[in-house]
Fold Phospholipase A1.
Amino acid sequence: MRCIYTVCFTSSLFIASTAIASTSPDYDACLLNAVKTQNGTLTLSDIRSHCSDNIAKAAPVTITDPSQSSQSSPSLMSQRLQDERDNALNPFVITPHRMNYLLPIVMTDSINNSAYKDSQWGGKMKNAEAEFQISFKTPLNYDDLFIHNDGLFAAFTLKSYWQVYAEDISRPFRETNYRPELFYLAPTPWTPFEANTWITLGIEHQSNGRTQGLSRSWNRVYTDLIVEKGNFVLSLRPWWRIPEDKKDNPASPKGDDNPDIIDFMGHYEVNAVYKWQDYEFSFTGRQNFSTNKGYGELGMTFPLWGKLRGYTKYSTGYGENLIDYNHKQQRLGIGVALTDLL
């Protein structure tokens, strides 16, 4: 149906007013009062029209200009960052950093027995184990530092590998990695293909807290370019390893525990996350092109019950953790996740 804009606007205003009036307690009171006081000449239709007009004049009516398009909902990463900022001062909320999960069963095609050959666990570990990760962060500023919506954060991630099925060696935790870090995150004005972008600058320490022979650690400075559009996020994280002195002898507590770690871990990491309906898919990849050593990981979360989500992941290559930085294997695990990435 064609109509002049002012006529359509007036009709819309009348419909909106009538709808508001018909659901208002004042409208019901007006009807009751009119029935009691009218002289009998007004019809029921007249009374309804009279009350609708009176209530509509007093009620505020919000009209949406049809020439203006509705604002799109924020993308998932933007929404996560906003939620984190909103809850920063809540003492009962712990802000996740990386994913928090528990995999009760993880199968590997090659447990790293060579790293433990001189220990009481040598040759006795199982190819099945449990794996879990706890990761959180806290802001160090509650107002903007240099630009709008930037922030300085401290974070900590603990990832552990538990030989829970190795009863004959008392079910040890064969490896635990500790990752404290400090980083600055800021949005950038660059919007390729109408995407949002952020830049991160950080410093990170990673170690397994073991004695000599099993000790592994390194420190690195990194930057992270994050590109996000809708339900998809892609990040490129190059790093530079902070050099360490060489050991005087292999048993020395001082010096570099793993001088060749870059040969296997490379100089960068690529991460991608995509959320489709209530499923989240993730990818992590590293590669050192000069040594042809690398690592790839695929993950998926899915609805389970309430806030609990199912989580499964498959990985292949070098550097699953620090003790396995130079050990190649394939791993497949399934369990639950407490938090998603987006």
